[in-house]
């Protein structure tokens, strides 16, 4: 059994990861932290989670078991402080914050409104989308897990492969997320019922910090310059799930977009290409590591729809997929039977 | 008191209109029909509606009170059959179906999958958006009430006025609607709880029948050729409300989009221009005749957000606004105190 | 036009009352207060409310227009402080807090965990259920509006009339309320989405402050000693509405319970007796001043189901019904067409 | 690996059981039927389920793999027809319908409005609540899995043990269920969004078919005559979970109810006694096999609150707990790590 430490285990993502680990054949959670919940037991905080061993929440700064792989599920500023420490102590680290994803320091600092204190580490971090960086993730010591919105958009574009050359570099990504993907924190109670129920709104319009991340990675491997991304997130009155509607304009008609998507992802265990985009909905991906993608083509216009569970393929289960690679285990272990 | 007959009063929109009429100082509903509900009383079917007089549902073909203004809230095929009859008998008619909105018969028949049997009537119908066609609506005998999605997009673009010349004629309209705007019928039970709750999806992607309507009217008065509209509706797990996110590209930067919106709509009683698009949400327009609009500008890109209540400004209260004009009453009567 | 001042107008109930007054033919809101919202305008705080005049929120202590009827929609401690002041200045007052409902000071102080500083006023307050105290409410200067749960249970029992002698004085009242009736405040954001959505729980089990109020008034006029009430409120993941399931045991079988309910309430404009309790649901009473009641009888057991809108018959519209009586207007004015 | 056949696998419960089996270390689903879904694959029907092998739905009458344990998740009439056939062929059978639970044929036929055609089988069926009938379930060939409401009430009373002698035999069980426990079927779309969302109601008041089942089993082992049960189910606008509020009257005050509950269930892996009934909610038991119980005592009155997931401890996971016993495996296998 490999040992896993989760720093910041009291949030939505920490909970999901604990649930996944409880059923994993080769890993076990051995250390969980939360400054707010320190002293409480796992079963007290998450009574609907069944864990092999009832761990007690520690403080972030408490000693972490030697040799354990460290998962950081803390806010950006906390990650800036903690990640270098754990790396220095020789832990394998996977960081779920946005701190080590962007390779442009200025863009990071502008978008995150945060001074970067360990920017050089970014070059050591592998961006944790296995479908793109599988080879580098195998055995990696430091992984930066991607954002939930980002994953849903980057992969939908990535699998277009060579056809990315044939689309205009101005891409609209209209994304809709349940409350657990929109920044509410479980420890704080998150969004008010009143503000979300029977309601809907856009937020951080053309100014969300995931936009440059989409921009940097969606054309990975294509040799193309980064496209312009127009990213608008919206808040759905649901608990979990992201559906992204992506608008592209091609240079010519009749290009084989759906076929290309299907061809480029055919060996991927967690990518499902649907025949029509109307088939895609949140219910089909909730509680799974799947990303569903399809599209509609009309003349030069292509509308892609993609969906994933923001807490799973958008966070915890993608982290587990990465951990499997980091520890040289089968990529699907604990995710597929 | 002017008398109003509602043909097809058993649906979502019929109910809303009955609620508005019950409080209206000058109109009263005198005749309500529903083939399914014939014989039942209004208070039995809508126990949460308080009506001055407890009407009994009649059949569609039953005799309509002479001189009453007729509201048609029936499916498209029923409107094709009934509208000419009521016009022939000399009733003022406002039709809420999509049958008399498009001036291109082929587009109508393709989009509605329906043979048009009285296309010449379209030229006699005034399209019922008062903010655009107020003068022609005053005293009009025949009005075609617009679609709910359409209203939210058309007006957001219409109020850009001359700036419409400065935008590229390829417009993305990513719209999200509660279930009452998405085709479910109250008489049939509509959507299943299971398919909608904790779920979200797009439907009729680039193939919704409201797309040509948006296209025909959004550039009204501009002298410009119709733009290309990329319209994708989505189904929200809420009861009422539409929020539309509209993506434009301008020919140059720094054009005064928000100021223009505000200037062009400044005398409109039901249009509210918000300072930022993040302020806009469904809760602020539900149960009102308001349409809220704002936008974010970044370089040449403009993202407009608009919101309305699909049953109100998107259907029943806009119909009442039109009826006020048709009957030469104050436009806001029964809608504003 | 009679003038109405609302102290504490920024909450759920204040908003509802403002909506009712905006459409009332004889009253107008002239003064609204909220310590938190002072300085903001009504249309800014409640953009979905349409008011004849856009009032600005004042502080609680600001001068109230002379001669205006004062509605207090403030917490219990604030009411203790403010009510005597407004009465002293000669205003008619209707208080929506729980402070002047109970005639047993000890019970009040125990249940409300609050020292009563003006208990003698309780004797001057008329308890605001028109169906019971109509005669005393006419022209009254001081009314204590009842609780929302209380109204749903008290009236269901009150209309049993003489049959109350035939039931065992141990009554179970299992009540379920939407979040607006369960203590969340709109100004504070109220309950978290996370804690309410896809969830359900009981609270203040056998210890809710409305229990003694039900006990004191449910046998009004019967000459019987107060029964034992076992009151358990529950929190529904809905916005508005209360449904109460009340369990009685009769002394003998075959007593005419439903007939008696119907007979005793037959002239009441806002009480609707349904043939079967399965017909009763929240949707039928939401946004209305109706209280729906029915029951099932099996041997000596009677299960009553009643439903109302906690913000309407449970608060704002019942207050308006009372105000109509206090001002010697028609009781249904502004509530029925 | 033991092989499991699921007859009627297309419903809510079938889906849950398939999810549990996919992760079970010793069982695998080998045969799934649904007359409606025959020919479709599991991954097509339940895209959010991850199965080791993508089974194809068969017809109910198709040949079942020899030696497989048969789970019947079909309506009552189908169970009446199919159960005897599978038993005759030598399969171990666990039936999830209500057909073999009641030992009084007349009560069955009255409550289920169904003629019983194989009543003698009832004596061979072990009632599938392991906490009560563990010994008889070990190695059993035929198990009748209990109802979801029933489980939540029976166990709450059962664990009172000897104190059941001290309570009056008239028990109110006011139960609230999410839509998946209230009879909606996933194949049919179930309840309409419109009828459930922002709504709440009681149904089958004092006439639900689970009432006699509660009555027969809640006093199991006590030697006491069956008590009178007043059972009223309600429909919550949530997907899953049942919370039951149970009202008892004791013969005397100060009896140790909570302590007795705790003592009698202390070795049970799936029963959690909470210190206060306010701690209990649906979220804590959803997706688990736990039943949470607590109570409030006031004088002679006791109000018990219990909660479970109707699809899990109320159906599929309790079935798996029973299957573990039938196959002489560890009772918690596949349910606890």
From TrEMBL, chains A, B, C, D:
GO terms for cellular component: cytoplasm. InterPro entries: AGPR, AGPR_dimerisation_dom, AGPR_type-1, NAD(P)-bd_dom_sf, Semialdehyde_DH_NAD-bd. Its EC number is 1.2.1.38. SUPFAM superfamilies: Glyceraldehyde-3-phosphate dehydrogenase-like, C-terminal domain, NAD(P)-binding Rossmann-fold domains. Residues 3-140 form the Semialdehyde dehydrogenase NAD-binding domain. Keywords: Amino-acid biosynthesis, Arginine biosynthesis, Cytoplasm, NADP, Oxidoreductase. The keyword Lipid biosynthesis does not apply. One of its GO terms (biological process) is L-arginine biosynthetic process. The active site is at residue 148. It comes from the Bacteria. GO terms for molecular function: N-acetyl-gamma-glutamyl-phosphate reductase activity; NAD binding; NADP+ binding. Pathway: Amino-acid biosynthesis; L-arginine biosynthesis; N(2)-acetyl-L-ornithine from L-glutamate: step 3/4. It is found in: Cytoplasm. Catalyzes the NADPH-dependent reduction of N-acetyl-5-glutamyl phosphate to yield N-acetyl-L-glutamate 5-semialdehyde. HAMAP family: ArgC_type1 (MF_00150). This is N-acetyl-gamma-glutamyl-phosphate reductase.
């Amino acid at each position: 059994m490999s040992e896993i430490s989760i720093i910041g285990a009291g949030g939505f993502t920490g909970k999901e990861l604990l649930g996944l680990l409880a059923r994993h054949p080769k890993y076990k959670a051995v250390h969980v932290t939360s400054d707010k919940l320190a002293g409480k037991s796992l079963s007290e905080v998450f009574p609907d989670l069944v864990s092999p061993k009832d761990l007690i929440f520690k403080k972030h700064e408490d000693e972490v078991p030697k040799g354990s792989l460290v998962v950081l599920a803390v806010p950006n500023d906390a990650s800036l402080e903690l990640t270098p420490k754990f790396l220095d102590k020789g832990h394998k680290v996977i960081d779920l914050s946005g701190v080590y994803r962007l390779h442009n320091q200025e863009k990071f600092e502008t978008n995150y409104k945060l001074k970067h204190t360990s920017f050089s580490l970014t070059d050591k971090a592998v961006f944790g989308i296995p479908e793109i960086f599988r080879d580098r993730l195998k055995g990696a010591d430091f992984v930066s897990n991607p954002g939930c919105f980002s994953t849903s958009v980057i992969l939908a574009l990535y699998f277009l492969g060579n056809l990315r050359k044939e689309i205009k570099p101005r891409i609209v990504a209209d994304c809709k997320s349940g409350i657990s993907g929109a920044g509410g924190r479980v420890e704080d109670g998150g969004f008010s019922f009143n503000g979300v129920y029977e309601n809907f709104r856009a937020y951080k319009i053309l100014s969300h910090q995931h936009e440059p991340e989409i921009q940097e990675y969606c054309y990975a491997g294509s040799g193309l310059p980064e496209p312009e991304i127009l990213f608008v997130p919206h808040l759905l009155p649901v608990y979990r799930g992201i559906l992204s509607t992506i608008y592209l304009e091609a240079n010519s008609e009749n290009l084989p977009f759906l076929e290309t998507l299907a061809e480029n992802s055919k060996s991927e265990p967690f990518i499902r290409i649907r025949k029509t985009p109307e088939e895609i909905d949140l219910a089909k991906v909730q509680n799974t590591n799947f990303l569903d993608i399809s599209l509609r083509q009309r003349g030069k216009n292509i509308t892609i729809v993609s969906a994933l569970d923001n807490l799973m393929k958008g966070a915890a289960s993608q982290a587990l997929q990465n951990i499997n690679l980091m520890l040289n285990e089968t990529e699907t272990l604990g995710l597929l039977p």
